Each structure stands twice: as C-alpha cells, then as structure tokens.
Amino acid sequence: MLESKKIREGLYWVGATDYSRRLFDALIPLPDGTSYNAYIVKGTEKTALIDSVDPDMADTLLDNIKGIERLDYIISNHAEQDHSGAIPAVLRVHPEAKVVTNPKGKGLLSSHLGIKEDRFITVADGETLDLGGRTLEFIYIPWVHWPETMATYLREDRVLFSCDLFGSHLATSGLYSSREEKVTEAVKRYYAEVMMPFRTIIRKHLAKLDGYQIDIIAPSHGPVHNEPAAVVAAHKEWVSDERKNTVLLPYISMHGSTLKMVDHLTDALCEEGIKVERFDLTVTDAGRYAVSLVDAATIVVATPSFLTGAHPHVVSAAFLANALRPKLRFGAVIGSYAWGTRMVEQVTDLLSGLKLDMMEPVLVKGDPRGDGFKALDALASEIKKRHKEDGIELS
Ligand code: FEO
Questions:
Q1: Is 220 in the pocket of ligand 1 (CB under 6 A)?
Q2: CATH superfamily ID and name for 3-239
Q3: Does 164 contact ligand 1 (Cβ within 6 A)?
C-alpha cells in the first residue's frame, strides 16, 4: 500500500485513479477524469476493504492490496459496478473474505455480479462490525444514487465512508481535497449530475449525519475531504429550497430569429437585475448545464419550430432538466416558428415532472419585431415580479 495514500495508521486509500475517462453512464462528460475510491481498514483482529473499483481497473486495486495476507471483509456500500465491479476479482484472490452489505445490496450484487449466497453477511441500519480496536458502523442512506446505498462510519477515527455522497469526478495525484482548487466546482457538478434528483431525501440524510462527529469524509469518487465542514455546508445549501435570482436560458436557433429573442430577453432580464445563464445547446456540456440547474429559480426554454415541434436538442435539454429534478420554480417557452407549431405544449409536457409555475409563452412568427420584443420585455418584468413574490433575494 502506498504511504502517500495513508490516511491514518492502518487506514489507506487503495483505489484507482482514471485520468483519461471522459464519459460516465455513456452520458456525463468527465473533463477531469475520475477516481474509484476503495479503502483498507485494519483492526488488531480483522481487516476490511471498503468498496472496490471499476472492473476495468481491478488489477490496480489488486496491486494496491497485494500486501494484505488475510482479508476478512469487503464492505459494499453501493452495488453500482464502478464500486462493486472488482469484488469478484478480490474474492478470487481472497476466498476467505465475506461481502458485507445490506439486504438490497445483496440482491443487486447477486444479480449484477453473480456473487454466491454464502459469501454474504447482511447488516442492518446502525449495526456494527468489530475489527479489534476499530468499529465499523453501517448507516443506511438510500438513494444517494441507488436504493441500496449506505455509508460506513469508522467510529474511533471519526471517518465517514460516504459512498457516492460528497463525491466528485476529479482525478488527482494527491489524496486530500483541501489542496485541490478545482474541487468545489467538481463536487457541485457531481451533486448536480448524480444527487440532485434525490434532493429531499438527501436533506434527511444530512440531518441524520449531523448526529456523527466526522473528521474526514472519504467518498467513493474524487479526493478525500480532510476539512469536511465546507462540503457538508455546500450540500445543505444545494438541497435546501433556497433559489437564486437566476434565469437559465437553454436555446437553439437555426436561422437567427430565436437567437434575436434570446439576446433581447437576456438584456431585458439584466435590466431587471436578474442573472442569466445561457446555454447554446449545439455546444453545451451537459454537466455545466446541470450545475446551473442546482439553484436557479427559473428556466426559459428557447426553441425554433423544428418540423411541427421543438428542436431535438431542446427536447433533450428539457428531458434532462425534468429527470434531474432541480428546485426550479418558474418556467416559460419562447421561440420563432414558420407556419404552425406544438413546441410550447411539447416542452411544457417534457418539464411536467417539475411542477413549474409556467408563464405566458412568447412565440413569434418569422423574424421578431416590435410586438415580439415588447412581449419579451413583459416576460422579463413578470419573472422579476414572480421572484420577488416568491421571496427570492433580488440582487
Ligand atoms: Fe459511483 Fe453510483 O456509482
């Protein structure tokens, strides 16, 4: 095990850093790569491995733990393959080891990896495992991505192995987040892409974790948080109902008419003191778009009519917003069409899961002129009014 990856005596990071991976779930861009974090915890009697790594990097994990003669437990906090995929390889090298997880985790590990019944020990919420001078406590935190997710708390060292929660897709040579300038942005991006759909349940988990003294958070991706207060506070803010005086403006323009409307609305909103975050969907990084969804109060979707509906890139952006379940409050559709269109109904339907308070759309036939621009000015004023009524702090 690498001395540079020692957290405490008998406590090591043994995962794999993937500097070159550029896509997760065949969807999410990874501009800074990622890491699959696994940890060795040694007690005086027993040794445990917390999680494993992506199966493509199983050899790296096996190399990192080759000094371990007897491995008693493999703790599986999360059955998704980027953390569990190398467990079968570890079990082949360590046939003495048992896989410790919760009943849901056991079911998922069996179906995904074919791990046999007699290899499992299942644990309940709050149950502990004594390693000899070190105690692991299992804390159920379902839906910090999948329904079986749990955290493991190392009591004596006050270390929380938090699974995907508090993670980041950030490949670094160092161990700790306090030395990484990019970590704040990477953690928010990770929250937006993975955690945001489960915002309300995570709020309860954060309250539950407040009952633990935590000196170190060791997540499943990205650097270890050795000064965890800031990352916990940031998550509390993101999962809260507090929204920012910001309009998210994803758009497509095919011949320039919708772009003129977007430009006009941007200026009008700025005049009203509202921040605008624009995304040209022909070039947008889905991760950056997701980050903007975290705390904006309003989304205005701008699309030209494509055949009789919204542009396919707009359909995709609306679908993603709906799937990520941000705390948006208000919505509107604007755009230009040539003869007839159902784009307002289509986009409104795609966003229906967010239960937005939808405002009057602004549709222009052909090139926008006087009345169209006036309608956009009115929309900007209406957005300001709604933000104010909703108690959003106006800047
Ligand atoms: Fe990093 Fe949900 O797996």
A1: yes
A2: Ribonuclease Z/Hydroxyacylglutathione hydrolase-like (3.60.15.10)
A3: yes
Is 4 a residue whose pLDDT tops 80? no
- 341-354: average pLDDT: 96
Beta bridge partners of 188: none
- Going by pLDDT thresholds of 50, 70 and 90, the confidence category of residue 205 is very high
pLDDT at 308: 87
Into which CATH architecture does domain 248-386 fall?
3-Layer(aba) Sandwich (3.40)
- Say if residue 2's pLDDT is above 80: no
Which is nearest to 16 in space by CA: 69, 110, 71, 89? 89
Strand pairing category for 330-337 and 296-302: parallel
* Domain residue spans of the chain: 3-239, 248-386
CB 131 within 8 A of CB 47: yes
Residue nearest to atom 3 of ligand 1 (CA): 80
> Is 0.85 surpassed by the pTM of this model?
yes
Residue 110 vs residues 103, 104, 105, 120: alpha-carbon distances, Å:
11, 10, 8, 10
Is the pLDDT score of 395 beyond 90? Answer: no
Percentage of the chain modeled with pLDDT above 90? 94
Answer yes or no: is the C-beta of 51 below 6 A from any ligand 1 atom.
no
Is 83 near ligand 1, meaning CB less than 6 Å away? yes
Please determine whether the domains at 3-239 and 248-386 fall in the same fold group of CATH. Answer: no
